[in-house]
Amino acid sequence: MTERKGTAKLDFLRRIEEEVQQKWEQEKIFEIDAPTTIGESTNKNKYFITFPYPYMNGRLHLGHTFCLSKCEFAVGYQRMKGKHCLFPFGLHCTGMPIKACADKLKREMELYGNPPQFPEEDEEEEEQKKITDEVIFKEKSKGKKSKAAAKSGSSKFQWDIMKSLGLRDEEIVKFAEAEHWLDYFPPLAVEDLKKMGLKADWRRSFITTDVNPFYDSFVRWQYITLKERKKIKFGKRYTIYSPKDGQPCMDHDRQTGEGVGPQEYTLIKMKIVEPYSAKLSGLKGKNIFLVAATLRPETMFGQTNCWIRPDMKYIIFETASGDLFISTQRSARNMSFQGFTKENGVVPVIMNIMGQDILGCALSAPLTSYKTIYALPMLTIKEDKGTGVVTSVPSDAPDDIAALRDIRKKQALREKYGIQDYMVLPFEPVPIIEIPGYGNLSAPLVCDELKIQSQNDREKLAEAKEKVYLKGFYEGIMLVEGFKGQKVQDVKKPIQKMMMEKGEAMIYMEPEKQVLSRSADECVVALCDQWYLDYGNEEWKKQATGVLEALETFCDETRKNFEATLAWLQEHACSRTYGLGTRLPWDEQWLIESLSDSTIYMAYYTVAHLLQGGVLNGQAPSPLGIRAEQMTREVWDYIFFKTVPFPKTDIPKENLQKLRREFEFWYPVDVRISGKDLVPNHLSYYLYNHVAMWPNDSGKWPKAVRANGHLLLNSEKMSKSTGNFLTLSQAIAKFSADGMRLALADAGDTVEDANFVEAMADAGILRLFTWVEWVKEMIVNQNNLRTGPADTFNDRVFISEMNSSIIKTEQHFERMMYKEALKSGFFEFQAAKDKYRELAIEGMHRDLVFQFIENQTLLLAPICPHLCEHTWSLLGKSGSIIKARWPTAGPVDEILIRSSQYLMDTAHDLRLRLKAYMQPAKGKKGDSKPPAKPTHCTIYVAKTYPPWQHSALSLLGKHYKSNNGALPDNKVIAMELGAMPELKKYMKRVMPFVAMIKDNLEKNGPRVLDLELEFDERAVLLENIVYLTNSLELDQIDVAFASEADDKLKEDCCPGKPLCVFRSEPGVLVSLVNPQPANGLFSTRIDIRQGDNKDSIIRRLSRVNRGIKDLSKVKLMRFEDPLLGPRRIPVLGKEEEGKMPISNSSVFHINLQENKVHMSDNGLKMDIGDTLIYLVQ
């Protein structure tokens, strides 16, 4: 971005914003309570909108702001539609990030002092090892630093992160206590949002965790209810887990890997057959297994070998049963948290080996028809998936057949890795699955079809796998005994179960993709004791699906994401042992995690202002005198469940009735707005928990969810590390609140990523400033604006265009499409005014100008409320614009609007034709001069199409009606038109004409097939002839019918597409003198032409002398004595002495032979000499 030259316009907007915000604060304009009258309470004309409360470990940034701006624009609009609107705003502190950051600061101070003296970069990696708690490997001397440790080695220290926020060393120390974060960041968030002009009822704001006694009580009540309703269970469950943090790592606790879950594999045990190789000889008598993780246990019947990567590091470790497993260290780490080892999280390493150490070893593998198979080399095995040991089923796996063929045909490869011929050559693919179209050896067949030459043909192999795997799973039929004739998808689980019962396989889990916790720890899948929400319960899932069916999602993609999530969603761990939050009421060693205490808190918003006393942590006296300990389960039940009787409590009945009335009025949530990334977790849990808490009251279920994409900044991802990042407070300082809001509205509305463009925000500042200045100018000059009937062509067009924009903008606001609302309600609205100003030669009408200003202020108010509040006051309106009503649109004359567009298109076309006319004739360079600028033009309009076009259009119209609004293929049309004898000489032109009509039909609808225009184009042009004449800087334009033109024009001219002929009329040069002193208007010479009148001469004069702005103020005069008059010196103050005004009825005549001009008026003829006088009043 280029540096700004000045900030005067920005400062102007910021001053307005500060004044307006103070006014709103004093008037408490956004504070709203449920109505107390019976009529208003039952006829609920309300709008309750929410945004997922942001996490309080830093300042709010532009990404948060983009998402919450959708709520802000919606509540502004709905309020103007006369609804009771509530937009409350909470602040989330539950979870581990704050606690993790605080603990990290403590640790850094312990290690490096206060303030810390951090080591140089080369020492940092070693020092970071002290901070990173890794999984324990018994053979510590040979332990290798994990990926997580490597990542944390290059990460910033927490102290540095705090300094980057602008905090001093003495302030940072306080952040070593988690509670300080809760005192520091939430008030800053509120302050920043107030500076944005957020229409929130701040009395209802709160922070979460047990620091807030009322919210803590509310969450405890929710969980007691869920447990009683059997939605919460306890047991061992596979979950993504951070060894370093010592607890499950839910989505909100992750640095990377949000949405990633555990992936289940079948762990195949392949026993190494004695005698062991030299490297393993010391383990004689022990059962050693190569363990391979597979997603396809049903294919184990077709094993011909197993694959090992020669240059990969493996470990041999002892399992709980005493058997020894060989795998990568990464997978062993996962297994150690799943009950594979004696001690949870501890991998007893017996030996470190390389893959080449076990190549060629003989194996006894389950299910295969070969008694012994061998470990062979594969160079493409990856370390980040599975165990590093891969089963080989060349009949059904393209990778396996390609690698097996490589080693079979390349003796040098076998020799390099010490593989004997007997380990490879006797092994052929085994038919195990019949796939329609691919036979019983699908992988070899597809590899042959795609001409795959080796295991290095990665792209072709990927294509082969896509073909074989999907079709094999859904259509494959088993061929092996015991499962013959059964579908592959039906036998997967039974085969897995059979192998497990025989001790030949086990269940093994690992994350689908890498997951890093916020403490930079690479997560594993662990089998944990935990409390979990049973989202997989069929009845509950069915109820949640019922909520989704009635839910407005605004786009199909969001609905599909919800459907997919509800289909796969199973148990979700709701408890953890580390972090901040509310304790489980029945098992207080556990905390409720952050995605689980945030599912129905919208209900708490409805009563928070009556409980908390206006402070975020709920620790001030309650406005109703209620103490947190009085909020028993029965009290909460009474507030939120309308059929529950009054509880036994010492809280006065009227107070509890007031709390219940607030909830009953505001609920359900009308719209929840969020990023699309929350659909697979928070937003789905939101549906589940509402139906669990109010199973028989669908009136409390969510009504709509609006998901949007992420926000790019200047077309790039926002990132602190690259500097492409803006906090909310920075954006306001840089662009003003309204300038930022305008750019946010323009950034985008769909689930695709939006784009905040700084140049747009800068342009927005200029647009808004210019708008206010124009309003001020109109107010000052209102007495100079036209009055009387507002019924000219351009008046009527402007009225219709304003009404049309109001209707369109309202539709966009209803659909929450704010980019489109800004387009129709500001950019196009302003363009309509600019067009009106340009076309209304007679001047803009005062009433319409002020109607426009009022409408524009109202349409823009939801997006830029500060400036609109200021404009509202400039108009002398009483009360705040926040309380104003949305404008009511009058009738829209679409035909009139289209006729105006026709006028603009025609003017544009005429300018292009004039430009082309002025080009030099084509020929040799330098031979031709450009023609003189024409003075006159005749525009020809056609009432009907030329016969050949008429025939083509008639045929298209007939097809359109008979085919329900569709046209046949061009070949069909061409044949039918070719059969018409009257079109034979025009066939080269007919099909391009048809193509143009088809294109216009798509853009403008069936009216393009009409044989006549819906308006009188000649009348439209004549009504705007002065504008056209001035626009083209011509002296005169005539409008004639094409029937009066020559044959070529007749053939080419059609309705809506006028043609023109330019010409130059001769004239006699006359001097026009302005005798008025010191006005910047000077003498000039212009041509007088035959038939000119006063107005045509003044128009011609204004084109030459741009200082003349208002033609109505120009007075044209002639000398009484045309010969001596010009020679007399004018007398100051007596400029009209010796001169006669030229009347409207005067007509000028020229004599070209004598180069003279005379004038006739009411039958009198007079010589004017060579000079005229003009005065500007």
From TrEMBL:
Reactions accelerated catalytically: tRNA(Leu) + L-leucine + ATP = L-leucyl-tRNA(Leu) + AMP + diphosphate; L-methionyl-tRNA(Leu) + H2O = tRNA(Leu) + L-methionine + H(+)
PROSITE patterns assigned to the protein according to its UniProt record, in alphabetical order: AA_TRNA_LIGASE_I
UniProt xrefs under Pfam families: Anticodon_1, RBD_LARS1, tRNA-synt_1, ULD_3
Domain Methionyl/Valyl/Leucyl/Isoleucyl-tRNA synthetase anticodon-binding: 795-895
Organism name: Onychostoma macrolepis
Keywords: Aminoacyl-tRNA synthetase, ATP-binding, Ligase, Nucleotide-binding, Protein biosynthesis
UniProt-recorded Gene Ontology molecular function terms: aminoacyl-tRNA deacylase activity; ATP binding; leucine-tRNA ligase activity
UniProt protein name: Leucine--tRNA ligase, cytoplasmic
Family (UniProt): Belongs to the class-I aminoacyl-tRNA synthetase family.
The keyword Aminoacyl-tRNA synthetase is assigned to this record: yes
Top-rank EC class of the record's enzyme: ligase
